[in-house]
Every structure is written in C-alpha cells, then in structure tokens.
Amino acid sequence: MNKYEQGQPAILLLADGSVFRGKAAGKIGTATGELCFNTGMTGYQEIFTDPSYYGQILVTATSHIGNYGVHPKEIESESIMIAGLVCKKFSKPFSRASANASIQDYFESHNLIGISDVDTRAIVRKIRDKGAMNAVISSDETNMDTLQKVLEKIPSMKGLELSSKVTAKKVCFLGDENASLKVAVLDLGVKKNILRCLIERDCYLKVFPMNATFEEISSWNPDGIMLSNGPGDPSAMPNVVQTAKDIIASDIPTFGICLAHQIIALAADLTTEKMHNGHRGVNHPVKNLLTGNCEVTSQNHGFVVNFGEAERNNNIEITHVHLNDNTLAGIRLKNKNVFSVQFHPEASAGPKDSRYLFDEFVENIRVNMPAEKAIGSKTQKL
C-alpha cells in the first residue's frame, strides 16, 4: 500500500487563519493561490484545464471528483491550469470505459497538488461570506508557522497580469485555409472550444499571442477578430487595452469573451472591479435584454465591469444581465461592430444556450464584408 492509498495527511490554510485537515490528493507537495469555488456537477477535466483558472486553487462544490476518470479529448488547454484542488471525495477508481486514466495518475503526471476529505460546504460558505482569499495546500509540510510564511508571500489577484503565463508562444493557424472567413484570435488564455466553435462555422483562424499589436493582427487582413478569455486582472493589461482600442477604431467585426469583455470595456472608458467571490459554475442565469430570454450559462471570472458606468455611457448598450446579482454580463458598442459577454457561450463544460452568439458574430462579419470580398468568399466556399 502506497502513501496515496494510506491517505497521507494534508492541510489547507486560508488567509483568514482557518485550517482544514484532510488527505493528500494528486502529487505530494505544497500549492498556493487564490481560493475560489465552482458549482458545476460535471466537467471537472474541462474546468481544470481552463486557462482562466491559472493561479487559483479550486474548491469543487460537487461531492465526487474523479469518478469517471479522464479522457484525452476533454481538455480546454494542453495542461492543468488550476494551482491546486480542494474536494470532498477524490475517487481514484473510475467507471467509464472510454476514460484512459484515473484522476490520481492525471494529477501526478501534471504535478497537481490537492486535498480531499475536507468540509467543502464550510469552505464554500466561508468564501461566500468573506470573499475569495489566498490559501495554501500542503501534504509535505505540517509546520503552521512555515505555511503561514508561505501564505504571506502569495500575491493578490488584484493588479496581477497572468495572460502572459498562458498565451500562445507564437502565431499558429487552425482550421481549413479554404474556409469562407478569416478570423484573427487574440489569445489571452483561449479555451479550445472557442476555437472549435469558430472552425465549425467555416472560419480559418490565425491565433496571435496576447502581446500582438493591431498592426500585426490587421496585416493578415482578417474578416473578424475574436478576443478571448483568460486569467488575471484586466486593469493590469494596458498594452492589450490599447490593442483593443485600435481594433475598435478599425471597425472590424469583433467579439470578446470573459476577460476580453472586460478589456473591451476598459478600451471604451469603463472601469472594472474585483468581485467579492466571483462567478464560477455551469448554471448561472443570464437575461438577454435584446430578446427577453433567459440563458443558463457557464461562467468563470473574478472581475466585473462597472454596471453604473455602462448605463451612463452613451456609447454603450447593455445586452445581458446576470440574474443572481444584477451584474453586467454583456455589452455592444453603439455605432461599432463590437460586442462582448462576460460568460462563456462556448461552455465546455456547460449548457449550449448561448452558442447563438457565435452565429451572430459570423453573421455580423458577413453583413459587413465589402461586396467584392463577400462574392469571393461565396465562390471560395462553393
């Protein structure tokens, strides 16, 4: 029997001084980050690999993690992005025939440290009451004074730029080069399913690193531009905000998701603020103010655009509102071909209620294409 089967002790220390004791999950070691929680019942592998979680320790509100193993195609990036995991039950055996490994093997191969057998309901309530806070997980250090010193060195998420940690290292192309549309993607930490949703809609993609300038992006002559999700504080990304301003000024049809929604808002002279505990889960209700419909959405963000400023800005139209707390969930820029949403229409994991936004983006591209280019696009498609 090895140390994992024996249930090696582990400790979770929170910034407010709370201590939770449980069992080691994944690799033995110490992990640090901002503690947050996700309410999703399924899709744990997609959640773990979402780049927007970079630098965060994730508490899963669902009871069991690992019971259906892992699958090589159920990923949103090439590696695990969470800094650590906190869960109630960590299931090393799995019961799905198509899975290729246990979550224990998966975590060990990606050097991911976790803790199980703790009261996750109490931890979630603490985050809801006191807000997201920094934390330490350790299964190789039990001295509380030592762990406290580690905790004190963790930087605040406020003011932290993290997209550079997860963005593409170089330009790459995806999809069919003979597709009818060319879409440039500014990768702030893009999820794979955003790229899939565009490719499925006959788009050929050129993915740019987050430090790409508008001049570099526009030199490809794209029909549309996608600004992606990603981690960290948008106010710590002035160069990306400037790129967004240049994109807006060009009037190239543009769609922004999550972090990019905040970047576009900053480029439109709005401000962002850190939320008390954020929105993370696959069951967040959002109202589309243009249609009156309610959509169940996937969300993962700890910052939000100031609602009052958006209401008072004559160049902004509010399109979506989060129904749980009335926070801003979507905008359009008046007289510009630019719109953005705070949630994840590509989901993965999550519902498909908002996938229509990709269709609207593609339609907006087609409607605004020069006549001669539109004809060429149709001919190319035929």
Architecture (CATH level 2) name of the largest domain: 3-Layer(aba) Sandwich
Number of helical stretches of at least 4 residues = 13
User: What is the strand tally?
Assistant: 19
* Helix content bin: 25-40%
Rg result: 21 Å
CATH topology tier name of the largest domain: Rossmann fold
- Beta-strand proportion: 25-35%
End-to-end Cα distance, whole Å, is 63 Å
The strand order across the widest sheet is: 10-12-11-13-14-19-18-17-15-16
Structural class: alpha/beta
Relevant terms:
Glucose Oxidase, domain 1, alpha/beta, Rossmann fold, 382 residues, 2 domains, 10-stranded mixed sheet, single chain
Describe this structure in words.
The radius of gyration is 21 Å and the shape is globular. Helix 9 crosses helix 10. The protein folds into two domains: 147 residues, 3-Layer(bba) Sandwich (Glucose Oxidase, domain 1), CATH 3.50.30; 219 residues, Rossmann fold (3-Layer(aba) Sandwich), CATH 3.40.50. It is of the alpha/beta class and 382 residues long. The model has no long low-confidence stretch (mean pLDDT 95).
